[in-house]
Design a protein that fits this description.
The complex is a heterotrimer of chains A (about 300), B (about 375) and C (about 525). With about 300 residues, chain A is mostly helical. Chain A is built from 12 helices and no strands. The longest helix of chain B is centred in the C-terminal third of the chain and has 28 residues. The chains are: A mainly alpha (about 300), B mainly alpha (about 375), C alpha/beta (about 525).
């Protein structure tokens, strides 16, 4: 394999991993607070379509990302009101949010179908990325750097700040946190909002850094894979990074298999396209085998909390 | 917040029945307002989507055709949901059911006889069951969450469908179109009502509803799934096996989704095409919840959702209302239902008001 | 206030209502500086609700709270801590997956750097003789150690009032003594203590004043040192006490249930393994298993009821037949009934009607299911019989289990099992959180069942209950069961040491294992 090919693979891999990594980091924080939001796919689709529309209209991908974040946060609030204030079933509400996001993005995206935008390219001057080695460092969209910074930021927040400690405490025992005097519902609202914003931004990666157009349902289950990665990562941001890049590698192999001939051609392209999903299942099984019941899941994950006062 | 939740001593039966009706009514009102605000003919859309298919008797047969697969799949899902087993990949099991039935049809293309159709139905059921057996095994053997695995397999099933119809199963007479050969008369569902498009799917759906009703309300198995869902430890104390419950719940839901797939491919489609996945598997989730996981409720909810599908097409032609908006109306129903659920278990009270029934406590003390 | 010193805390006319209950009805009393003040009352008398309002977790519907003489609103626990109120909860407010230090940090309202906090925690532990490793995860600690975290957390805030909610219910007698030393030291330094309990001998030993609550009302304030346990008990319960006669008409028969070398790997993430447990229960015998919570009691009940799989058939024998590999249903048919500790969600389904709850465990022996179909009529009439025979207060067989009070639900569950005429009954914490009337009825029912010839195993944390109810007693600690001893003439001190096991001072426990005689001699 030539150096150029390796570099090209790395760059594709980082791009393919970025949306999942961003969305999964958001969901990790949500789940650490004890809430299971299965609406990631719906929030990503919402972010994708709003991010596309804002970029198309304003010409600025920065505004597109911002709009996507706000859109993701806005729809996550539907989930928050239902599950946190009205204590509805989190599984059902998350599914409803995904169905809503699918419908919303299909409707809102209709006028944008077939319209082009520019990819959200590197912020560094192109001269820096001329040399192949430099390209590996400087050749990405700002969203890729954002995702890496957020891996660290989320870890630092959860394990090095008092607010992070409180968030973890709320996810471990809502009753204890309430009796010490922490606002359980308030903390969870903030976590869900953060998760919504991250899912929205993650969704906007599809039109902004992967395929510069609006296609209905373009996330094709990446939101669900993000959910699976959080389990695989045992709720640890560092392992999330590994999981997302592993997934990116498989997605990249699919792309190269389609383009390349030879040995890749023996397997049908549909099998390559199925690999990310099969790999996700495999990874969940491997994790479960290793964990043997000690999953590291927050103790209150998915349980509604209604304070008695 | 000025409102607080106060737990009812027992769930309100009135609210269990009332909230789905409220959810549909609120969807019409709020949906109408919201779509009007963003520049559509909101209330025109509500009229066309929710009422036109009911008023126009010609549309009734469309309702029966659309409602049948939704009801069949949702009845299966509801069995699992009652036991807190979340199969959300019914779409994939539906596709596998369709593919398995197609496989039989292709094998029997030069044969004839009344045995072919039942064999296709069995294959459809087996296909759906086989597809869901993987998540069932992974859940009971390795504690892998079935929500994620059933969904992942749905994406795989779409790829499998594409592989088959673009590849080995492609009809040689279709001028390169990705589709199988058309099914013969012995491989297609009979029409039940002459002169309409209503095939055997609708009566089968009704039979399934009544069987499920009997099982859920009268049998020990119905009691078992209810117990496993409500309190897993109590279920274990009662001697109900969690693994067995998960297996049965998933196999039933997968089998019924597979049957729905067979009924569609041998019915309205008449051959396998890439357009076969029609989101019935996902919409059935809404149907199951809106029907309160009760077989008869699901029958009604299935018809309501069928109305929105048929009405959505009406609204598209009559007032040029965008069809994807139907999905928003459908998810709004689910949101309002889930929001209304709180009324089943809690009373809403203003802060500072006296809780219900505490005066009787005072008399006691 | 008469002495010119304001009361540390005074309550005046506090009222709190819940749906269907008046939890506190015009409650008034005062706590002086440096006083150890008991709040006495049986389960459901309204003690916990009252202290939750003092600590700001709940708000009173009427009435006033005075702090050092000034009317005060305690709007949340932060405000309480700022005033100088510390609280040690009955159900600890701890986070299992976090470390001791993280748990303590969460109880501080100001952000204190980890190193400084650790130093301050060390100082407190030194002063009061409380031993803790600040870097261990709470999930690895014993109940007594967990309580120490709560106490350290409260003491770090230099409280002038410390509320202790049923602090001794989970401790060994020796741990209780250590706790009292700490509390007396605190009181001598001027800290007031509000001590909530229903254990009369503790209150006599520790407290200066006792306020007695019954059905949400203050019925008396007295000096526990001059009262007798019996006089306080009568005020607390509101009626004369009935003594139960545990031996009347009872004879010990053949060996019924034999457990031999029973071992079981840990159940769940924080479960305790069972190690080589052996004991024998005869017909007509009540066998007690004492121990501090979390030492394998749950696993033992699950192994006996068949809810946890045991792989070697002869580890459990019934009438000489090996049954350890049989499932719950088969064992029930053979006459083994069980009542787990957790009433809501394990012994019963809160959202189900009582009639449906009867189907859970009585369906086979009573014949509620015929060819896979449930006969609701049979379930209903059986439930009616249980309600009548055990005087369960309810609106009927259609009421949900969750709508019953703790005592009534427990009576229903005991009745559901006992009316099936089991030949073996295994019951865990039969009167936990149950009012005195219901507790007496449950104890009597257990004795009557034994008198009818059944073998009974009672697992309880309440040593007093076991001593008054059982014929034979063994102590479970870290999944091991001590040798059984006759209750007649048993030494409480020795039982306490067995309960402490290797949880307590490692040296003491090592000594205990090596030279049990020396410990006995003490």
């Amino acid at each position: 394999m030539s150096v150029d090919l390796v570099i090209a693979i790395i760059i594709t891999l980082v791009g393919a991993s970025t949306p999942i990594l961003i969305a999964a980091l958001g969901e990790l924080v949500v789940e650490k607070s004890g809430v299971l939001n299965l609406g990631v796919e719906g929030m990503m689709l919402t972010g994708a379509v709003v991010g596309f529309a804002a970029t198309y209209t304003t010409g600025s991908p920065w505004l597109g990302v911002l709009a996507a974040g706000f859109a993701g946060m806005a729809v996550s609030m539907i989930f928050a009101v239902l599950t946190l204030t009205l204590s509805s079933n989190q599984v059902a509400t998350g599914l409803a949010l995904t169905i809503f996001g699918t419908g919303f993005s299909a409707l809102f995206g209709q006028p944008y179908t077939g319209k082009p935008i520019d990819l959200f390219r590197s912020v560094f001057p192109p001269e820096l990325a001329m040399h192949p080695i430099f390209k590996v460092v400087f050749g990405y969209s700002p969203l890729a750097y954002f995702s890496l910074i957020m891996v660290f930021a989320v870890w630092w927040f959860l394990h090095r700040t008092r607010a992070g400690l409180i968030l973890r405490a709320v996810g471990e025992s809502d009753i204890s946190a309430h009796s010490i005097g922490y606002p359980v519902i308030g903390v969870r609202y903030l976590a869900v909002a953060f998760g919504g914003a991250m899912a929205g931004i993650g969704g906007s990666c599809f039109p902004l850094i992967l395929t510069p157009q609006w296609v209905e349902g373009l996330t094709s289950g990446r939101g669900w894979i993000a959910l699976a990665l959080v389990v695989f990562a045992a709720w640890k941001p560092g392992r999330l990074l590994i999981g997302a890049y592993l997934f990116g590698l498989i997605a990249t192999m699919e792309l190269y298999a389609k383009a390349a001939g030879g040995a890749f051609r023996i397997l049908p392209s549909e099998l390559w396209a199925s690999l990310p999903y099969l790999a996700t299942i495999l990874v969940l099984v491997l994790f479960s085998l290793r964990a043997k019941g000690r999953t590291g899941a927050p103790a209150c994950l998915g349980k509604p909390f209604v304070p008695m006062n | 917040m000025p409102i607080k939740l106060e737990k009812r001593p027992q769930p309100s039966r009135l609210m269990i029945y009332l909230t789905p009706v409220l959810a549909v009514a609120l969807t019409m009102i709020i949906g109408g307002i919201v779509f009007s605000l963003i520049g559509f003919d909101g209330f025109g859309a509500v009229r066309e989507i929710f009422f036109a298919p009911l008023i126009n008797t010609l549309k009734w047969q469309d309702l029966a055709v659309k409602a049948a697969p939704l009801v069949i799949i949702a009845v299966g899902l509801s069995i699992g949901y009652r036991a807190n087993v979340w199969n959300i990949g019914a779409e994939g099991q539906y596709i596998l059911g369709g593919l398995a039935a197609t496989g039989i049809a292709l094998m029997t293309k030069d044969m004839s006889g009344p045995w072919i159709l039942p064999l296709m139905a069995l294959a459809g059921i087996a296909g759906g069951m086989a597809w869901v057996a993987v998540p069932a095994w992974l859940r009971t053997r390795f504690q892998v969450n079935e929500i994620l695995t059933t969904l992942m397999l749905t994406y795989v099933s779409i790829n499998l469908l594409n592989y088959l119809v673009f590849g080995p199963w492609k009809s040689p007479h279709a001028f390169g179109q990705p589709q199988t050969i058309s099914f013969s008369a012995d491989q297609s569902l009979p029409y039940i009502i002459p002169g309409t498009i209503v095939q055997a799917g609708a009566p089968i759906a009704i039979i399934i509803v009544f069987i499920a009703w009997f099982v859920v309300s009268r049998s020990l198995f119905g009691f078992q799934i209810k117990t496993v869902g409500a309190a897993p430890f109590a279920a274990r104390h009662a001697g109900f096996s969690a693994s067995q419950t998960i297996w049965i719940a998933l196999l039933v839901s997968g089998g019924l989704a597979g049957l729905a797939g067979m009924l569609e491919v041998a019915g309205p489609f008449g051959r396998m095409v890439p357009q076969f996945p029609t989101n019935y598997g996902f919409t059935a989730i809404i149907v199951a919840f809106l029907g309160r996981l009760h077989p008869v409720g699901i029958l009604i909810a299935g018809i309501v959702l069928a109305i929105t599908f048929v009405g959505g097409e009406v609204a598209q032609t009559t007032i040029a209302f965008p069809y994807p908006a139907v999905g928003i109306f459908q998810s709004m129903m689910l949101f309002f239902l889930l929001a209304g659920d709180v009324l089943v278990r809690y009373r809403l009270r203003l802060r500072g008001s006296t809780p219900a029934g505490s005066t009787s406590g005072e008399a006691q003390a | 206030m008469n002495d010119g010193v304001a009361d540390r805390l005074a309550l005046s006319g506090i009222v709190k209502r819940f749906p269907g209950v008046l939890a506190n009805d015009r409650v008034s009393f005062a706590v002086k500086p440096g006083e150890i003040h008991a709040l006495l009352g049986e389960n459901g008398a309204g003690k916990s609700t009252l202290v939750k309002m003092i600590y700001g977790i709940m708000q009173p519907d009427a009435g006033e709270i005075f702090w050092n003489g000034a009317p005060t609103t305690v709007s949340n626990p932060k405000v309480a801590r700022k005033l100088g109120i510390g609280m040690v909860f009955q159900h600890f407010s701890l986070f299992e997956a976090l470390t001791v230090l993280e748990n303590i940090a969460l109880g501080m309202d100001a952000k204190i750097p980890a190193r400084e906090l650790e130093a301050r925690v060390g100082a407190i532990m030194q002063t009061y003789g409380l031993k803790l490793d600040p870097h261990r995860k709470v999930s690895t600690l014993s109940v007594g150690e967990r309580q120490r975290i709560e106490i350290v957390r409260a003491l770090l805030l230099n409280p002038s009032l410390l509320i202790m909610d049923e602090p001794t219910s989970v401790l060994t007698p020796q741990e209780v003594e250590q706790l009292f030393v700490v509390l007396r030291q605190l009181a001598s330094e001027g800290c007031s203590i509000l001590y909530i309990s229903h254990k009369l001998h503790e209150i006599k030993a520790l407290c200066d004043t006792a306020t007695i609550l019954r059905s949400g009302k203050v019925v008396d304030t007295c000096d526990p040192r001059v009262e007798t346990s019996r006089s306080m008990a009568e005020k607390m319960i509101g009626a004369g006490l009935k003594d139960i006669n545990k031996t009347a008409g009872r004879e010990r028969g053949r060996e019924k249930l034999v457990v031999q070398h029973l071992s079981l790997p840990p159940v769940g993430e924080f479960g305790t393994a069972l190690k080589d447990i052996s004991f024998t229960v005869h017909e007509g015998e009540i066998f007690g298993i004492a121990g501090v919570a979390g030492n394998g009691q749950n696993a033992l009940l699950l192994a006996l009821s068949g809810e946890e799989a045991v792989h070697e058939a002869d580890m459990i024998m019934l009438d000489g037949e090996p049954i350890a590999r049989q499932k719950t249903r088969q064992r029930r048919l053979k006459g083994i009934a069980s009542v787990p500790e957790e009433r809501n969600g394990h012994a019963s389904v809160p959202d189900f009607s009582l009639s449906d709850n009867s189907v859970l465990t009585a369906r086979d022996r009573i014949g509620m299911v015929i060819s896979g179909l449930i006969r609701p009529g049979t379930a209903q009439s059986y439930t009616g019989k249980v309600i009548d025979a055990f005087s369960v207060k309810t609106t009927g067989i259609k009421s949900t289990a969750g709508s019953l009070s703790g005592g009534n639900l427990q009576k229903y569950i005991m009745g559901r099992e006992i009316l099936q005429n089991p030949s073996v009954l295994v019951v865990s914490q039969p009167t936990w959180g149950v009012d005195a009337g219901a507790a007496a009825a449950i104890h009597q029912a257990i004795i009557d069942l034994a008198a009818a010839g059944s073998a009974i195993v009672v697992i309880s944390q309440d040593l007093d209950e076991l001593l008054s109810l059982c014929d034979t007693l063994a102590v479970i600690n870290e999944g091991r069961l001590s040798a059984p001893m006759a209750v007649e003439g048993a030494d409480v001190e020795e039982i306490g040491l067995l309960m402490g096991g290797i949880h307590g001072d490692p040296e003491a426990s090592a000594e205990m294992h090596v030279h049990p005689e020396t410990v006995h001699a003490d």
